[in-house]
Amino acid sequence: MNTSSPGIARNNGKASRCERHDAFLHPEEQTELAARFPAGHQAQMAFLLAVYTGNTSVVAALLGTGVRAVRRHCRGWPPPPGPRLRRALRRRVLDLVCPRCLSDRAVEEAHQAKREARRAARRIPRDRGGLER
Fold first, then answer.
1. Virtual CA dihedral for 40, 42, 46, 47, nearest 10 degrees?
2. Residues 54, 83, 5, 91, CA torsion sign
3. Helices 41-51 and 56-63: crossing angle, nearest 10°?
4. Gyration radius (Cα) of the chain, Å
5. CA 25 – CA 72 distance, rounded (Å)
6. Tens digit of pLDDT for each residue in 71-106?
7. Which of 37, 60, 83, 130 has a CA positioned 20 to 30 A from the CA of residue 27?
8. Residue pair 15/37 in contact by the 8 Å Cβ criterion
9. pTM for this one?
């Protein structure tokens, strides 16, 4: 049974579930996730390459494989990616597609920006105080 074909991946309920947020996703978020999740390994690899602007070395580093393997799997050359690479590929695509992961990332980026602003504000008085002595 070929599970990398688009029809099976699209109809399979386990194909596009975020393990961290599966219990918290609303039905409309689940349909959005299913619609945005690329079907098949070749489509997932092409999606990652599109997100990282075609930089195969970045995608290879994220997946823990070689650049040549990324190029081969994106073109659909046999053999299909192994189970470890399929899991890593699915996890990276879900992080970029899951609505809850996206909102969590946006919240974390906002917290990080506030932290950096507070640190910058604390550094300003020290720098000015040292010049007046």
1. 10
2. negative
3. 120
4. 20
5. 34
6. 888 887 777 778 888 888 888 888 887 777 778 888
7. 83
8. yes
9. 0.60
48 has a pLDDT exceeding 80: yes
State the burial class of residue 45 (Cβ atoms within 10 Å of its Cβ: 0-12, 13-18, 19+): buried
For residues 47 and 54, the answer to whether their CB atoms sit within 8 Å is no
Tokens 């109809």 belong to residue: 11
Instruction: Please state, in angstroms and rounded to a whole number, the distance separating the CA atoms of residues 129 and 123.
Output: 10
Considering only residues 35 and 45, tell me which one the structure prediction assigns the higher pLDDT: 45
